Amino acid sequence: MTESAGPGTSGGRAGTSGRALDGLFLAVSAGVVAVVIGFNALNVFHERAEAGRPVAFWEPLVWEGSSGVLILALLPLILAYTRRVWPLDPPYWRKVLLHLPAAVIFSLIHVSTMGPLRALIYRLAGARYDAAGPITDWPYELRKDLLVYALLVGAYVATTALRSRAAPVLATDDTLEVRDGARRRFIPVAEIRWVEAAGNYVELHTAGGAVLHRAALAEMEKRLVEGGFVRIHRSRLVRRAEVAEVESKPAGDFVVRLRDGRELAGSRRYRSPLLPS
Fold first, then answer.
1. For site-directed labelling of 113, which of 105, 157, 177, 271 has its Cα 20 to 30 A away?
2. What are the structural domains of the chain?
3. Cα–Cα nearest to 86, from 12, 136, 175
């Protein structure tokens, strides 16, 4: 669950802004968890009293508080894994499947640690608590933990996606800032050889491989035109300086051969930038 500049599709989601966002998300989550702990403890306290099984108020506080503290302790790992397996990156179904075992592992750690922690606090208070109690009731706890995991991941993804939309991709004279969730990667425009549409994304092809970025090809064309890029196909842009040869086809289409030997198909509709009539 580590993060670097290169995992995933378009580089690390870490970076300065990513760390700041994670810190803010953790702080807000801690506040929400504290409020939930208080309300749940009060509810349990009153429900037990009405049912004729009263307990001291510190006991439901320990039950709810131990659960909340452990969730917050595991939250940085959940965020790191979510950055690694970003649900908004295709293939979506595969990302969902990869999060299922992570949610189960989260629940196992949460429940298996919760009992011993409560037992320790009870012992310090001169009372007794069954440390194995929560794990013996894991099927019930698992249902709650799956919901908690989904809510945390969903809130984090929504927060980072909204932040990303609020700060769009920027192109300078020599650098393209590519954002992917909470991560950003700075790609020198001079390293981009060609760009290809991929559904709701574009692939930025460099010598180091392809970088997948959520943007429309038309948007990237506007941003990269000053860098010497031309459209050769409805789904493809190429840098003029990378073109070694252009071969016309009888139907009016053409093939662009790049300096590295790669061949790209061009459409007759877009032949004028490279093959003026």
1. 157
2. 15-166 (no CATH), 170-270 (2.40.50.1020)
3. 12
